[in-house]
Amino acid sequence: MSTKTSINITLDADKLKDFCQQLLKRSRDISKTHDALITLETFISVFARPAHGTVEYKIIEDTINEITEISRQQLLKKSTTDLISALRLCDAKSITSIHTPLSRNGFYQILQTSIEKLSDDDIRLVMLWSDNWVKEAAEMAEEASAYPDSMNFNNAGITIEEFQAISDIDRVLNPK
């Protein structure tokens, strides 16, 4: 015999906004806070399905979307600052950790902003480094593969995320 256990939750747009703003204010890691807000947004969408299409739901949806966009902008700002430092150091691991959680569009957006803030010498250095890094990684992956014309990044000691991150930079700075 199954028993259906449930509770009703009432969301007030002003209280939701206050809660989310406090969450943003207390955040020590904007990436985790942004993920939490996306989770909250999904939770509301899934469990408030009967209310979809109502004026009340639209107000709640707009409220959470507004706060989520603020967290996204903060995340992009922090990621841009971190990417500038990682590019100056040609630090593939740091670049990968910035690249991985972002959408490709988000990464390209912060990459463009970062490039605008780098000196010409820094840009030339990153152009050369990314070009050489991608070529060397591809060669290592091909040599590590047991099959012709295929790459095995794992056996080469390179993560696919790392290859994608540096390839995205190389694609922007050294268009073929």
Pick out its properties.
2 domains; mainly alpha; single chain; 176 residues
Quick structural overview:
α3 runs antiparallel to α4, α3 crosses α5 and α4 crosses α8.
User: What's the rounded overall pLDDT mean?
Assistant: 94
Q: What multimeric state do the chains show?
A: single chain
Helix content: over 70%
Distance separating the two termini: 65 Å
Structural class: mainly alpha
Whole-number total of structural domains: 2
Q: What sequence of helices (H) and strands (E) makes up the elements?
A: HHHHHHHH
For the biggest sheet, the summary is:
none
Supply Rg: 22 Å
- Indicate the overall shape: elongated
Low-confidence stretches: none
What is the tally of helical segments? 8
Per DSSP E runs of 2 or more residues, the count of β-strands stands at 0
Strand content: under 5%
Plain-language structure description:
With 176 residues, this protein is mostly helical. Helix content is 75%, strand content 0%. The chain has two domains: 11-89, no CATH class; 90-176, no CATH class. The protein has helices at residues 13-26, 30-47, 55-89, 92-99, 104-117, 120-144, 153-156, 160-173. The model has no long low-confidence stretch (mean pLDDT 94).
